[in-house]
Amino acid sequence: MPLQRPPSTQRPIQCLIRRRLCGLLFLSLPLSACGHFAGDAEPANLQKASNADICEQQWLLESLVVDGREHKTRMFWQKMWRDRPYLTCDKLGFVRGSAGSNPYLGKFDLSDSGNIHWLKPPKISRMGERRESSELETDYLLALPRVDSASRQGDVLVLHGSDGTRVEFQRSSEAPPPAP
């Protein structure tokens, strides 16, 4: 006859196993969403953006991911609003704004399905005296030409690149003051 543990010792082991499995399941739920923001899939509540959804509006940078580097809104951005990158465009596809320290200009074609094709990648324009670029400005100007689709949810605009580049903007009713 095989040896069996008395029922009193089996029950705590079963409870311990159940608690550990439940704990692993509980911990895995938040982690399962992590890949969702890395560009693997688009959130269901984001919709493809068209030219009419984006252009003729002011978009302030909220976050940026390019080549594994991430920039997020910080208190510094709130205090130095004029140094915060922003984007505007017009019906002809001209994209302009500030990259943080310097103004930029580019041109894209945005389809009704939200696909972006850059006709002229954004570059620092030669208006006024050029200021030294920050790391944020360099990454912002690196990221914009890499995006190939646009999605929008309310006041949030998300530009995606097939290489994992992600640029997120918040709609603003007013433009930052021009850099001195």
Summarize the structure in words.
This protein folds into two domains: 7-36; 47-172, Lipocalin, CATH 2.40.128.270. The protein is 24% helix and 32% strand. The chain is built from four helices and ten strands; from the N terminus they run H-E-H-E-E-H-E-E-E-E-H-E-E-E. The protein has helices spanning 7-32, 51-54, 75-79, 135-143, and strands at 47-48, 58-66, 69-72, 86-89, 94-98, 103-110, 116-124, 149-153, 156-160, 166-172. Strands 1, 2, 3, 4, 5, 6, 7, 8, 9 and 10 form a ten-stranded antiparallel sheet that branches. The termini are far apart.
Q: TL;DR of this structure?
A:
This protein is of the alpha+beta class and 180 residues long. It has helices at residues 7-32, 51-54, 75-79, 135-143; strands spanning 47-48, 58-66, 69-72, 86-89, 94-98, 103-110, 116-124, 149-153, 156-160, 166-172.
Topology:
Layout: H1 7-32, E1 47-48, H2 51-54, E2 58-66, E3 69-72, H3 75-79, E4 86-89, E5 94-98, E6 103-110, E7 116-124, H4 135-143, E8 149-153, E9 156-160, E10 166-172
Mean pLDDT: 74
Classify the fold: give the CATH topology of the largest domain.
Lipocalin
Count of domains? 2
Largest sheet: 10 strands, antiparallel
Cα-to-Cα separation, first versus last residue: 90 Å
Percentage of residues in DSSP E strands: 25-35%
Structural class, from secondary structure content?
A: alpha+beta
| Alpha-carbon Rg, integer | 24 Å
Indicate the percent of residues in helices. 10-25%
Question: What is the level 1 CATH name of the largest domain?
Answer: Mainly Beta
Going by CATH, the architecture of the largest domain would be Beta Barrel
What oligomerization state is this entry in?
single chain
Shape: globular
In N-to-C order, the SSE pattern is: HEHEEHEEEEHEEE
Please tally the helical runs, counting DSSP H or I stretches of 4 or more residues: 4
Please give the number of β-strands.
10
Low-confidence stretches: 21-44
